[in-house]
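Hi W., the 3-(2-carboxyethyl)benzoic acid complex you wanted:
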Amino acid sequence: MSLPSHLPLPNLPPLELSYRQEDARALLADERVLAVIGFGGGWVAPDDPRVVRVALEPLSPAPLEVWRGRGPVRHGREGALRWSSDDDYLFAAIELAEVDGDIEQAAHAAYRELLAWVQARATPHWLRLWNYFDAINLGAGDAERYRRFCAGRARGMACLRDGSYPAACAIGGHGRSGRLLVYGLAARSPGVRIENPRQLSAWRYPRQYGPTAPTFARAMRSDAAQLFISGTAAVVGHASLHDEDLAAQLDETFANLDHVVEAAHGRFGEQVLLKAYVRDARDGAAVAQAIAARVPRAAGVLILAGDICRRELLVEIDGVQALA
Ligand code: 3EB
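Structure:
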């Protein structure tokens, strides 16, 4: 049944995000499921546009991440891009092979295609983007792959106004897939960008971090009072703090998470869904313990082996927080 066009659309319903120990095929049979995201190699990914495999190995028994909307969900493919939508939300993913290891060109192509396609839909408002590629810290100085990724991403995002970037994370895998995976969530109503008062906005980072500043917001609040929090690490102002000190980096990261959620008029911790990326897999247990102690009422925690974009950072945490 469609609504009369003179009536305003009802409010955006919250997206249901969860970590589930279930069979991917059974999850995909639900017509409300927008996306099923699996981690590492230990599962069989069904051939469905709604499924993505993130190459990072999980350090705890790996659930699948499931996004569920009001439904019913339609889905399809357009070249390298695949998508699903229930007209409230859009999931879109693109995976491109790097040509001759050129991550800048791959990022440019992926973003140009993804953004152009989503812009033309009824759900054009980006809330969150996820980026995964190999060897993020390979290369010296401005030749580092993360910096070159940032340059290509920024060019591919040129259609967005300066500073109007959604929340994001960019994480390096340890494999040699030769591929860039970008996927994201958009909605029919615009979110509100939230910056962290303890941190300089990433798109204003000074030159020392590379020729092109990273193009992401610290968090994005949706119209359904959900806060999509970007990858958060021990960065204060623009500087990385506590080199080589995992416990101190975790404290700083939690302080940043507290402040960014507070800036959105929420409280960090209650029913939050978290992901932690650890550079050294041997830190996985300590990070899991710290999260359990600091965020006892999390709705789910996933620990993944992944490299953070600055070499001195050992851990990064992101998540989705329900606001009051
Ligand atoms: C930082 O605060 C840590 O390039 O998309 C966090 C979240 C970081 C997203 C990105 C990078 C990105 O700068 C790194």
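The chain has one domain: 16-322.

W.
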